[in-house]
Every structure is written in structure tokens, then in C-alpha cells.
Amino acid sequence: RAASAATAAAFDFPELAAGIDEHLHVAEGYAAQPLLRWGDPLFADAPAFDPRRQNAAAQERQFGYNNDFVGFIPLDAAGQRGLLVVNHEYTNAELMFPGLNAVDRKGVIAALSPDQVAVEMAAHGGSVVEIVREAEGWRPVVGSLYTRRITATTPIDLTGPAAGHPRLVTEADPSGRRVLGMINNCSGGVTPWGTWLSGEENINYYFAGALPDAHPEAGNAKAMGMGSLQYAWSRFHPRFDLAQVPNEANRFGWVVEIDPFDPASAPKKRTALGRFKHEGAAGARALDGRYVVYLGDDERFQHVYRFVSDGRVQPERGGNADLLDSGTLSVARFAPDGTGRWLPLVHGRDKLNAENGFASQADVLIETRRAAKLMGATPMDRPEDIEANPRTGRVYVMLTNNGKRTAAQEEPANPRGPNAFGHVIEIAPDGTDHGAETFRWEVLVRCGDPSKPEVRASFSALTTENGWFGMPDNCAFDGRGRLWIATDGNNRRATGRADGIWAVETEGPRRGTARHFLRVPVGAEMCGPCFTPDDETFFVAVQHPGEPDEEGALGSYEMPSTRWPDFSPDLPPRPSVVAVTRKGGGRIA
Ligand code: FEO
Ligand code: CA
Ligand code: CA
Ligand code: CA
After folding, report:
1. Which of 196, 421, 460, 476 can pair with 513 through a Cys bridge, CB separation 3.0 to 4.6 Å?
2. Is 279 a pocket residue for ligand 1 (Cβ < 6 Å)?
3. Cα 425 from Cα 406, distance rounded (Å)
């Protein structure tokens, strides 16, 4: 081909046709192999998946539900063996259990039995799975010494400045340092020292009970969205009832650090990284070697955060055991002129004092959202994943949408009200230093259909009718620093296409050009994109396949919108991690 270097596309896979049906589709020349499905046995003694007899003891030994974040940690130099670390964000009871026949969420909550709730709790959390690449493809090593399930009942330490604070103490845990379980773990990150960071997101769905206005935790509960119950757990476990155990909710909403090399180690909720609806926790190194974690708070009008450790990353794994327990959490202000600043959330500085109800750094961290608003952070359109390009040092923020932003609330960093399709912001840290206090930013792309002027999308003119997308959510960079975006919210009505993966050019004259690579079955969203270090395998997570293709409607076990990936009348649809490779081998192009 005659294209010059300046105009050459970074991507040259044949573009996939956008659309929506029961199947997963990937660009021609690529293969997509379901690698881990809900219910797959992980331990040698794990029973085979039997959805009509599912129970908590089996589920604790099997792959969990609704795989979201996926991280790959190589175990050999060639990258043919590694640990896959996977978040299990939530459960869809109506798709998991036969015969619920409930028409709405309240009906599901009322119908669930204690045993079914125990299955749900065991299907939450995360999995560590050793995988190997063989001639036929990747396979899980059932019974590997690394195998681990973390659930909603696993003992987890609370560490850092808020650990042990009276607001984290309950009758069951007078120390305020040990909580049972992690829940709604959405996206995450893998650290250079080989641990897994996992963000607890919509914790409000699990807590019943209202607090009286005069209760000291009432404002905090409201700020976290309590009062929108989606789960039955509080019917059988009083700790999920705010009226009975008001402090229990303060023990959720953190970033959890897990050592996948030591299955006996207690995971750690790192309170220094703040408490809010955590999406991801991808990181990068500051020029001086401190570790930086970028953090999104996924709710309308919430914020973009950054944590910078006090210490530097050490070459030995053990040297980083407590690195994330001390450092500075900051929140972003995006000025209209394209500059920006990280505002430190440090007790005693500016308004973060006793007069405003912050007696200590623990208070600042437990009520991070209130602290951020007091400091003048920019309210954003649902910040999801944030990832740094390892090649350029520029940072990309997925802003998924915001139907509640009004035209009067339009401003340069959130330029559409309402924002139905989301946008991507590119941040250039000053001095290409992730530790710098200031940055420049611009909108990389406003998402949505470019053929509709009223949408005000801004994909490049080279983007085809298959190449545009809405609702960016997760993202990943491959080894060449190319950006791949996963979406959540495309469907027949919203965009006439399924969620999936789009590759997006960030450099040169093709900047802002998107190209369609993969799409998920109806009802699913696309999560977890992650490359092996050789770029030969692209892991993607298909979440909640089989939901109805309309907002708010409930699916059912008996009549799911798809039975992917098994397509057996005896099996429900199953959330699964899929390994994508190039037919005949080679890098994903
Ligand atoms: Fe769990 Fe923000 O998606
Ligand atoms: Ca999700
Ligand atoms: Ca997400
Ligand atoms: Ca989402």
C-alpha cells in the first residue's frame, strides 16, 4: 500500500459490521474462544456446573458471575502461562435461577431464598485463575496452587489512614480493621509489583434501611446513593441493613489490593485511595518513581481522582507491601481553557477541617465525595476507566454518559447536555510526569452517530458507519500504545448496535478515527479488555449476556435474549471471559 507513514492507520484489521444478534462476532481473521464461563470449576474438587442445583458451596469453587475487569500477570518470560485476575461485579438473579417469574426488582428481592442469596454472595468478588497457552489455545489450569475465589464473605483487611477509625467499627468487628467481603467490583488494575487492584463500585444497591436525618451517617449514606436497593441480602444478613448496622456501609466503596501469588493472604482495602463508587484503578509511575493510580467515580456529576504514593516503587515485590497505604489523593479540576489541576484532599488544608465536619484524614477519605465537592472539583459525566498510554504518557478518561446534564450545564470538559453517548478526555500531564500537579487536557472524541447533526459527535471523517460507538466504559492499551475501547449501553434503541470493542486512533491525521473490532451478544456489555505482553491474545469479558434489549426490563432464566455461549436449551446464558487471537498466530493488528 502507498499510504505514507503520516497517514497510515495504526490498525489494519478488517472492520467488523456493527449490529446486534445472539452471537459474539469478531473481525475476520480472528478467533474468539470462551475461556472461563460462570460456573466453570476452578478447583480440583469443584463440582461441574448444574444451574438447576446451584448452591453456595459449589459456587465458591467455581468461576463467579458478571466478569468485569480482567488482568493478566505472566508466569513465564514467553507469556504462555499466567494468572488471570477477574472481577465478578454483580449477579443477575433473574437469569441465574429458574422459576423466579418476578416482574420487577422488588419482586426478585422478595422471591429469593436464603440459599439463593448465598449463591449470589459466592458469585460476587473475584477469581484468580492460572491459564496456559497450548496448541489448541488457552485453557485454565484447574486446581492450580494459585487458584482463588474471593467472595462477599472473604475476610479482608482495612488498611491505611481510615483503618480502625470508629466510623469503621461494628459490633462484629470492634477493631474496624476487618470486613467480610468485597462487592460490586467493577474495573481495576495490575501493579508493577504483581498485585491486583479491584474497585468497589455501586455498593448502595446492597444496603437496605434508611437513617433518620439526624443520624451522623445520614449525609454520608445519601452522598453514596443509599436507598436504591437491588439485592435481598439484608433480609438474611442484618449487616446490610443500615438501620441495624449503620457503619457497615463505610467498610465498602474502597479499592482492594490482592496478592494473587499468595492465595492465603488477606486482601486489603486501601483506604488511602478514597471511598466512592470506584470504577478502575490503573496506574503509572511518576518520574521520581512514586506510584500513581488514576481513579474514576462512576456516577453522574462525580469526579476524576488521582492517588500518588509517598514512597517509590521498589524493585522487590515485598518492598511494595504497604506502598498504597500512604500518599496523596487528589481530585481533578478541568479549567475551561484546557489546563487542569489536581486538588489535594488533605485534612487541614483549605476547607477540609473540623468546621466542615472533617476531624481527620479518615473523615476526608470516608466522605471523599463531599471533600471533592468542597474543594471545587469538576463534576463529570460518569467517569469510568482511566488509563495511561505507556508509550506517550497521555491519560485517557472514559466518560460514559450523563442524561441529567442540562444544556445550561454544558462546559468545555462536559460539552453536551444531555450527554447521551459519552466522550473521551485526553490528559497530558505537565512535563509528561504523572506526579505533576498540573496538566493540559482536551476532548479526544464526543461519541455517538456522526451522521446525526443533533448528536454533535466528533469522530474523524474517516470513521465508517460501523466505526462509531456510544458509551465508552473500559479501555486498554496494547504494547504499541494503541487505544482499544469497550462500551456499555449500546443496544437496538440507543445506537442500533451491540456493545463491543472499538479501536481508536490517538495520533496523527487519523486521530479520532474509530474502527469496530468485536461485538457482544444481545443484552451484554463489554468489559475487561486486556492484552498479553506479546499482543497475541486480547482477553475480553462478556458481562450479563441475555438481559433484555431494553432499559429497565428484567430478563428471565426461562426466556433469555440469548443463550450464549453454550446455546444449550438446558443452560442459561453465561457471562464469560473470551480469548481473542489471530488465526494463524501473530499480534492483534
Ligand atoms: Fe460497573 Fe461503572 O461500571
Ligand atoms: Ca458493568
Ligand atoms: Ca464499568
Ligand atoms: Ca458502565
Report:
1. 460
2. yes
3. 19
**CA 178, 183, 186: angle at the middle one, nearest 5?**
130
Q: Are 100 and 93 in contact (CB under 8 A)?
A: yes
Please classify residue 504 by burial: count the beta carbons closer than 10 Å to its beta carbon, then call 0-12 exposed, 13-18 middle and 19+ buried.
buried
Spatial neighbors of 464 by CB under 8 A, at least 6 apart, are 15, 515, 516
Interval 431-452: pLDDT, tens: 999 999 999 999 999 999 999 9
* Cβ atoms 292, 304 nearer than 8 A: no
Query: Cα of 385 to ligand 3 centre, how many Å?
Result: 7
Domain boundary assignment for the chain: 1-26+381-589
User: Is residue 368 predicted with pLDDT exceeding 50?
Assistant: yes
**Bridging pattern class, strands 268-270 and 155-159:** parallel
pLDDT score for 103: 85
Q: 384 CB under 6 A from ligand 1?
A: yes
Determine the number of helices (DSSP H) and then strands (DSSP E) in the chain: 8, 31
Q: Where are the beta strands (DSSP E) in 7-59?
A: 25-26, 30-37
Q: Which tens digits make up the pLDDT trace of 257-299?
A: 999 999 999 999 999 999 999 999 999 999 999 999 999 999 9
Phi, psi angles (nearest 5°) of residue 449: -75, 115
Q: Is the confidence at residue 7, as pLDDT, over 80?
A: no
Separation between Cα atoms, residue 149 and residue 143, nearest integer Å: 12
CA of 280 to the centre of ligand 2 (A): 11
Cβ of 200 closer than 6 Å to ligand 1, yes or no, is no
Q: What is the ipTM of this complex?
A: 0.95
Name which residue sits closest to atom 1 of ligand 1, judged by CA.
186
Q: Decide whether any atom of ligand 1 lies within 6 Å of the 86 Cβ.
A: no
Cell, residue 512: 479520532
Q: Is the CB of 299 under 6 A from ligand 1?
A: no
**Residues present in the chain in total:** 589
Average pLDDT estimate for 450-460: 98
What pLDDT score does 158 carry? 99
From residue 390, how far is each of 35, 361, 432, 479 by CA, in Å? Answer: 27, 32, 11, 8
3-state secondary structure of 408: helix
Helix (H, G, I), strand (E, B) or coil at 445: strand
Ligand 1 center to residue 558 CA distance, Å? 27
**For the CA of 66, the nearest ligand:** 2
CA end-to-end distance (rounded Å), the chain: 16
**Sequence-ordered list of residues with C-beta below 8 angstroms from that of 252, at least 6 positions apart, any chain:** 179, 182, 183, 200, 203, 206
Tell me which H or E stretch contains 369. Answer: helix 368-375
